[in-house]
Automatic annotation (TrEMBL), chains A, B:
Residues 37-56 bind DNA. It comes from Kitasatospora acidiphila. GO terms for molecular function: DNA-binding transcription factor activity; transcription cis-regulatory region binding. This is TetR/AcrR family transcriptional regulator. It comes from the Bacteria. The keyword Transcription regulation applies. Keywords: DNA-binding, Transcription, Transcription regulation.
Length: 194, 194
């Protein structure tokens, strides 16, 4: 075997993950979730089924990993110039993505094939990181900003709870109302001085 | 066939449901979730597997129905004399039950085998009904009471969100803090007059 053919385990491992994840995403849109099987994914990804079973345990855990990867934000929250606008835009977009039928399926997958809770925790960490960016930016502007955990309780939790359990009447107006009730009608987000 | 042997469909249907649900609960504690199969449940319940497939579709949907039944509160919230005490006691008990390993398993089951969202909605409706009893009682006492949906957002949603996604540090102190932040340090729950 030439030197070039010897790949680091990490390299091969990463390639297997990428091709298996891609196969799942393709097949989800082509054949749908109910028709998805480990042998089907393996064939599309060019690996053996046992590679998938060894690494992911079962289809549910694989779907959970793919879901978490899908739910990872790929950009920083947009800067709209003040805390209220930033939180409102973020909450509207979060609701829009998560409450879509594919968003809900991904959240359920992330929660489901996740015996140790790590994937659910990762979803929540993604939201917390985005909130943290928004709050830090507000602090830099001299705005009075709440802390991350309180923002999770007042904004992220009710959005996610209603998406999962109580979706009737959910929409951008609800997201805006949460922000208004959280920051106060004219309350939060004002400059600390001036 | 004698008159006595002719049972109404509703009666038989209810008996099948009761015996299948009981079989699931027994087997969950005896063999665990991973070893549970439809034929095993059918054998214990004294029905055919096809009876279960016809009625529930698959094991996941059956587990979801059993979970919702388990999550139904069997008593009214206790009356501790004022809104703050009632909400605090309810939130502590809700967290205690739902955050237990069996509680979390039931919530996940309720969410998962639930393609149309009806079972998740039912879980949320149970919580809303209990909150409604507490708030109506506060109103009867002449206390200023918030509305049910706001209470869902401020109390139930963060509890459930953290149970599912962000369980680190969850405990009775967190439940009490949510109530305090919601009602105000000495704010809500005071008599409207006097």
């Amino acid at each position: 075997m030439s030197r070039k053919q010897m790949v680091r385990p990490g390299g091969r491992s990463a390639r297997v993950q990428a091709s298996v994840h891609a196969a799942v995403r393709e097949l989800l849109s082509e054949v749908g979730r109910d028709a998805l099987t480990v042998p089907l994914v393996a064939e599309r990804a060019g690996v053996t089924p046992s590679t998938i079973y060894r690494r992911w345990g079962d289809l549910q855990e694989l779907l959970s990993d793919v879901a978490v990867e899908h739910l990872r934000p790929d950009t920083s929250p947009e800067d709209h110039g003040d805390l209220r606008s930033d939180l409102t835009a973020w909450a509207e977009q979060f609701l829009d993505e998560m409450a879509s039928s594919s968003g809900r399926a991904y959240i359920r997958d992330a929660l489901l094939g996740d015996p140790d809770g790590g994937n659910a925790g990762q979803c929540s960490a993604y939201a917390a990181e985005q909130i943290d960016v928004i709050l830090a930016r507000a602090g830099d502007r001299g705005e009075h900003a709440p802390d991350v955990e309180t923002t999770m309780d007042r904004l992220v939790a009710p959005l996610m709870y209603r998406i999962l359990f109580r979706p009737a009447g959910l929409g951008a107006a609800y997201a805006r109302r949460l922000v208004t009730e959280f920051l106060g009608a004219g309350g939060g987000g004002r400059p600390v001085t001036g």
